[in-house]
Specification:
The chain has about 280 residues and is mainly α. The protein has 14 helices and seven strands. The protein has two domains: about 200 residues, no CATH class; about 80 residues, Alpha-Beta Plaits (2-Layer Sandwich). Strand 6 and strand 7 form a beta hairpin. Bound molecules: iron/sulfur cluster (SF4) (2 copies).
């Protein structure tokens, strides 16, 4: 029993995220006995207990495409954008996006099989895809990314099953295993790029706890889906992860055996830690 509890504690962030991700999927997919669902719609646009929520990236594409946007879509977009701006946009990636279940599984398999292939891809590629999707929405009058968005495909796949959706998801899955470490989410997905920008100044951040706790093993960096965000903290050049790419997944906290890292809601913009200046990556 103690071993089981210790195992859960060592992976507390991972299990918490999985519970949240599965609950969100279930809220859309499971029918209530009295009819209807907890959440109506999908992650692009949904209604939770009468409150409409709109994905800001979808809203922006709709705006550029010239789609009619009502007041409720605007309010729903502002609620979602406000929350991600406050806590950090890529929380979406680790705690909400269903594709993360797939890409985390790919990463796990990759580790187990000791696959080292790492085709070089610039992280700027996802920003370029983001900008291209917005330009295409403007020029075509259609929601360009929505036509291929794997997140939407995933939800469709769950509800109805489709060959196209299955092929897109299988491609991402195999790409992440065999071609590049964290290939899709860290290099190609424009949704992640969008949320990274939206939550660039998010206040929920990984921080170093005390000066002596970190032994410099860098185990946290090995498991971080975006290792560049942790590098300044491990190099003791910063006491906070300030980069917008941090997904707040907590993998670094699960991995750290010395308790040198913590997740903190820090409402101040910058600070210092025992004389170590913060190197802001904002
Ligand atoms: S990068 Fe894209 S696919 Fe990956 S978790 Fe984030 S939104 Fe989902
Ligand atoms: S710094 Fe920690 S919380 Fe942020 S992405 Fe890396 S492992 Fe996840």
């Amino acid at each position: 029993m103690r071993r089981t509890l210790a195992f859960f504690y060592r992976n507390r962030w991972l299990f918490s995220r999985r519970v949240m991700q599965l609950l969100i999927i279930a809220a859309f997919a499971m029918e209530l006995p009295e009819g209807g669902y907890f959440a109506q719609g999908n992650l692009s646009s949904s209604t939770w207990f009468g409150i409409g929520l709109t994905d800001p990236y979808i809203w922006l594409q709709s705006l550029l495409a010239g789609a009619p946007l009502g007041k409720s879509a605007l309010i729903g977009m502002l609620i979602v954008a406000g929350l991600y701006a406050l806590f950090g946009g890529r929380i979406y990636c680790s705690w909400v996006c269903p594709i993360n279940l797939l890409t985390d599984l790919s990463y796990w398999i990759r580790q187990k099989l000791h696959i080292k292939s790492n085709f070089t891809l610039s992280k700027n590629l996802r920003v370029a895809i983001l900008l291209l999707s917005l330009l295409l929405s403007l020029l075509s009058g259609k929601l360009a990314w929505e036509m291929v968005n794997p997140i939407t495909q995933f939800q469709r796949e769950l509800m109805w099953g489709s060959m196209t959706g299955a092929m897109v998801l299988a491609s991402i899955f195999l790409f992440d295993i065999f071609v590049t470490r964290r290939g899709w989410c860290s290099h190609l997905c424009p949704v992640g790029a969008f949320y990274s920008e939206l939550g660039r100044y998010g206040r929920l951040r990984v921080k170093a706890t005390q000066s002596g706790a970190c032994n410099g093993c860098a185990e946290c960096i090995k498991v971080c889906p975006e290792p560049h965000v942790l590098a300044p903290v491990v190099a003791r050049k910063a006491d906070l992860v300030t980069h917008g790419d941090c997904t707040r997944c907590g993998a670094c906290l699960d991995q750290c055996s010395t308790g040198a890292l913590a997740m903190s809601l820090n409402l101040k913009r910058a600070g210092s830690f025992k004389g170590i200046p913060v190197v802001s990556q904002d």
